[in-house]
Request: fold
Amino acid sequence: MTQRTRYFMFGSALVMIVGLATGLVAFYNSGLPLRASSSGPAELAYVPADATGVAFADVRTIMNSDFRQRLRQVLPSGEEKDKLFAETGIDLERDIDTVVAGLTGSDPLKGGALVLVRGRFNDPMIETLAVQHGATVETYKGKRLILMTEHAETTGTVEPQAPTGESHTGAIAFLEPGLLALGEVSAVRRGIDVSATHEDVTKNEELMKFVSEMQGSGDAWVVGRVDAISNQTGVPQQVKDQMAAVQWMAASVRINTGVSGQIRAEARDDQSAEQLRAVVNGALAAGRLVSGNDPKATAMLNAIQPTGVGKTVGISFTLPPEIIDIINGVAGLNNLHSDKPATGGSSR
Amino acid sequence: MTQPANRRAPGVLYAALRVFDLSLSDMLWSRRTIFMALIVGLPVMLSVVIRVLLELGASNIRVNQTAVAGPTIFGLMIWGFFVRFTVPVLGVFYGTSLIADEVDDKTITYLFTRPIPRGAVVLGKYLAYMACATFVVLPSVLLVWLLIVPAGGSLGASFLDLLKDLLLIAIGLAVYGAVFSWVGAVFKRPLLFGLMFVFGWEVLVMALPGYMKRFSVAYYLQGLVPHAMPNDSAVSLVLSIFRETPPLAESLLMMALIEVAFLYLAARAVSKKEYVLEQ
Reply:
């Protein structure tokens, strides 16, 4: 081996080592620039280890995105958002930075979903407003809990009631400065318990594997066991049958001027994955054949890319800003139709 | 001076490493490597251009009138530049030349007169090809990844896919190299045969339904690619309809079998064949 060859090999090896080391550092820091730890958001310390799903949304980034501004022109403002503001003083658009949700299935003893909201909150005002709307306040293991009791809206009066059953009582807890927990009171209490015992979802290796993969891949992501979702009542049998082949699902979206994202499913075995891939590929191919020369439909279909190997089935997609313009147009058209007075022809 | 009577001929591995040492520099500084550098340099150049455009203020990159993020472009490059083109083409150009070049240059006699197994010559040259190809192609993939993925994507999130890409490209180079080293050892015009196999046979069987695609390397190699297959042409549309992805274990097992079998056949063909050097 000549000296020149040695130099070349050394240079080449150096490029590979530097590249791989950069990737490794980025991988353990969930993407460059540095964002968060690979063990997921800090809020996961309140999600129980037996959680079947975890979701995350960087609300601040999403609210500030061009996509959101465009979508705002199309979608009406939510009544629930206004109701939350009236009852707690929390403005979804301004006060919230991130939201983390942990799902523990439909078992009422485990409390269902726990939503952890990080942002800038006026704690005394939230408490005062909630109490004015019939809530009661208690302290649980050093944390302030607001128990949301139901009130009779039909009479127009506020009648505070004692919580009749914890599984039906909503709660807000002030966990840390700038961190609220929302959910069924049993779920919130359980969240406080697991943060004290450290038996949180980061101990759930199976789930955390997917969380680590999704973290940093988008502004919002969700990971969950599919059987836990399909066991819920209300899911149609056909959907349950299709979902039986899938064990885990994960999805993430990145929002800027448009929306790009990925959906990943982990099948029970290679054969199930192969069947799912065939279904996805077949549907996309059929879509292309049907869409013909329609450039908009072709652009939309081209934005969907099937992927995956082994037990993994995936779809990546990009929703360009033009699609929002199309939705804008369709929504505008619908509004135009709905504003028209009903004539004999249109009512038929 | 006489040789010691008890001196034994070197073993296959030792002899192969000697041939590897001898061949590596020749192979690395040959005209073929300039060709290879051009092939793998093209995606790097393209990545630099894209990155510069983005840094200068281009809002996004569009493929088929669709704005795409860096990881998607990287995936398209892995498919278009590396898996479908660079890997098979380098396999053909280098693999077929391992023995054929020595025959054409009439230097094979010097190797065959050494007291080493003929199979070790094939193995040593094959190892030199692998070192040469991987040390040129893999840094190129890494550079493309470092340049492209941060444009709308995350290096950390796509790191595992990068590792898979590097591994499958190395496996592809190894398997195609083994197949075409056998072709080079057996056929009179190996380059022509190799190009027909890569751009004729493999493309045809991959686009057809049925089991024929199992008689190609591309079927097993493309099944390992973690990125979405591009759908940019009529052929791609047909491929997406008839595409079957073999299970991971099957792909790896079949490629290992193909590599070992063809390397063995190449070594055997060189050992058995009588090379008549044309004057």
